[in-house]
Amino acid sequence: MGKPFITREGFDYLHKELDYLWEVKRPEITQKVSWAASLGDRSENADYHYNKRLLAQIDRRIRYLRHCLADLQVIEYNKQQDGRVFFGAYVEIEAEDDGSVKQIRIVGGDEILGRSNYVSVDAPMAKALLGKGVDDDGEVVTPNGRRTWYINKISYVKPEWFEEQEVVQNTLSSNDDDEVVIEEISEEEQKKIQKEYMKSLLKKSK
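The structure corresponding to this sequence follows.
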């Protein structure tokens, strides 16, 4: 099975998140944990337990991002794609049954990030449109039956008609009632992270 696809913008966004967590957020929370631990009795130290849980969440997200960035394949725009729907395309589609219009972008699953108008290349909608041009149609099977969509517009540069939605941020917070297993990063694991981080920097610069 090939590597999962991602656009250059999506890769850069995830790398920016990793940069922030590794270089800023983790050191900040680690310092807070150390400070809270220095106060003595940890059993009733709310600051210690909250930040310890938050650190565990940060560590899990760092692990995920480093594995993700090392495995993803960045797909760059190629002018030969013009006029047809391929990975990375912005597409305006219109429903045959009621004339409703949608604007979507076809991307990798890791870069949807909660945006409803970003569609995974593996989703039925994307598969129905791939390789097709303006005025072509794609049929999508929905829970309510088959639905046909016509392609109105295609672009590989962000067009004015496409509304960029806000990314739903990865929430690094902790509920005191949650059962959280603390997964501290060992010195060996930190070295692995640093190694993969440097590899992703090289990949980013290409």
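Confidence is low (pLDDT under 50) at residues 173-184.
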